[in-house]
Amino acid sequence: MFKKILIANRGEIACRVMKTAKKMGIKTVAVYSDADKDALHVEMADEAVHIGPPPAAQSYLIVDKIIDACKQTGAEAVHPGYGFLSENAKFAQALKDNGIAFIGPNIKAVEVMGDKIESKKFANAAKVNTVPGYLGVIKDAEEAVKIANEIGYPVMIKASAGGGGKGMRIAWSEKEVADGFNSSMSEAKSSFGDDRVFIEKFVTQPRHIEIQVLGDKHGNVVYVHERECSIQRRNQKVIEEAPSPFLDEATRKAMGEQAVALAKAVDYESAGTVEFIVDKDRNFYFLEMNTRLQVEHPVTELITGIDLVEQMIRVAAGEKLTIKQSDIKINGWAIESRVYAEDPYRNFLPSTGRLVRYQPPQESVAEGLTIRNDTGVYEGGEISMFYDPMIAKLCTHGPDRLSAIDHMAFALDQFLIEGIQHNIPFVNAIMEHPRFREGRITTGFIAEEYPDGFSGVPLSDERAMMLAAIAVYMNKVHAERAVQISGQLANRPRKLPKEWVVAVDDWARRVTADDMGGSVRVVFLDDDGNRAEAHNVRSDWVPGDAVFRGEVDGRPMVVELVRAKQGYVLRYRGASAHAAVRTPLGHRLNLLMPEKVAPDTSKMLLCPMPGLVKAIHVTVGQEVKAGEALAVVEAMKMENILRAENDCTVEKINAEPGDSLAVDAVIMEFA
């Protein structure tokens, strides 16, 4: 067994690999760029080696720097994680040439299956049913349009050397192919060091289901069941689960056996994933094989009890698999939510900055329910514009699908992040979406259910009342504390009002709040001052806590709160509401306050996220039409094309390629 391994990656996956290595008694080496010098994976490792500037193309993607780091530290093997160099055959060969073990498959498998174009050709030759497409390298946008027209729309443009949604576009017209081709090539080059892309038919209403395989150097291969990855946004997986709610035993077995046959055809060793597109009739088509550990591997580990990273390390060290196909059972259900640094209320644009607060839910195993959080960040750390926006992978496991989903919602309630925008409200909303809970999902779920983007979950009357009761409870705690400050009122005790008015967004109710021996009874009054309904609130919340944890009428509730002008913004299960508690006079006076009018930015192009200007497509004085590309801004390895919302004339341009802009910076102005 290895004594020391190097992890050629960063963030949560580097931390994940280190946890297993330490469990196995193996020392670890981290590599880091300037942007990651204070990163969690650097702190966790036994040793760390600096490898260059922040851009991955100047650090994490340079093979010689990784090999030099191995030589400096005496690392005997390299685990590549996912992304970066994980599916780079030249990297695997360079390690072999230098006597360093690659904790991954053999070079043949990496070459054949790690390249999306070559894997399609190989699968066709092996008579594996594949999605129709053009498997050659496409030289320019003009050729891409011609090919797309021959295949028929819609088509998918994909990076040959990568995955994770990078360099991937769905195009429904010639214009979208022409626009998307160059962006796909650029993203592919910056993310994987390889700008080749290919085009294939996009199957409408598909489900994305993948099979986990494990092989050793002795010809043994098993499949470790499936993961459903159909909840995707812009081809980037958001929520995964294992097993799939769609497969029956016959289809599961057929897919697993086909995945094993494909793996054996390339003498596959280590962990890998065979991805399939599955239609409504459970017909499945080979999509690609990822010759690496998948982001979503924790859900497979949770339902099988198999540590996939440990198996990868043991296989790389030459050990035989001790797991037989008959040993691999499905135990319960697991859900994974990818927590991203992005703003769901602004079309999921990337968000960067400091994690002022980062308080994930406590990892736990209790009463048949599990919470697991794979992360690579910490409170006070920075979310950089140079890398993937993933903050954490939150996983839950339960005896069945609904229990795992409900526990995920509970865990997301407890996940507190401040300082940047994040997608927790969005993924929590999905946990309660009827279609998701029923398992009626496809890869088009998000686009179909949120066609105009995400603007939060409507607050039901019941939940509005629960949040109002919590706001009254917190106000009572605040008020009782305020009248006792410094003992200044010892000789003239101040009494709290008997009645208050609680306002939640646009509605307001009169209330009273009384101590009930460990809880507070909040009574809502009707217009005549008579009791309408009452709720008991119990909690140990104190002013300053950013999360309310307690019970309302015996029902556990975890609510995130942000101090706002004259009250709080309360967030619960994807819904957000402003709550304020005032005296009756204060409420009447507040109604007389004028509203502040927002400035008019309709004649400006604002930078929607912190990012780097890659291109300006217009000039001063140019007349542009609605939908025309104005500029390209890159953030977190994704290129975002900014388009004109209306016909207009460019009056002023305030930025140029290479500029680093903050969110809402004015890129250009229109007449």
Mean pLDDT: 92
What is the CA–CA distance across the termini? 69 Å
Shape: globular
Q: Order of strands in the sheet with the most strands?
A: 14-13-10-11-12-15-23-21-20
Q: What are the SSEs and their pairings?
A:
Blueprint: E1 4-7, H1 11-23, E2 27-33, H2 40-44, E3 47-52, H3 63-73, E4 77-79, H4 89-97, E5 101-102, H5 107-114, H6 116-125, E6 133-134, H7 141-151, E7 155-159, E8 169-171, H8 174-192, E9 197-201, E10 207-215, E11 221-233, E12 236-242, H9 249-265, E13 270-278, E14 284-290, H10 297-304, H11 308-316, E15 333-340, E16 342-343, E17 349-350, E18 353-354, E19 357-359, E20 364-366, E21 369-375, E22 382-383, E23 390-398, H12 401-413, E24 416-418, H13 424-431, H14 434-437, H15 445-449, H16 461-482, E25 500-504, E26 507-515, E27 520-525, E28 531-539, E29 547-552, E30 555-564, E31 567-572, E32 575-582, H17 584-590, E33 604-606, E34 611-616, E35 623-624, E36 629-635, E37 638-643, E38 648-653, E39 660-661, E40 666-670
Parallel strand pairs: 1-2, 1-4, 2-3, 4-5
Antiparallel strand pairs: 6-9, 7-8, 7-9, 10-11, 10-13, 11-12, 12-15, 13-14, 15-23, 16-17, 18-22, 19-24, 20-21, 21-23, 25-26, 25-32, 26-27, 27-28, 28-29, 29-30, 30-31, 31-32, 33-40, 34-36, 34-39, 35-38, 36-37, 38-40
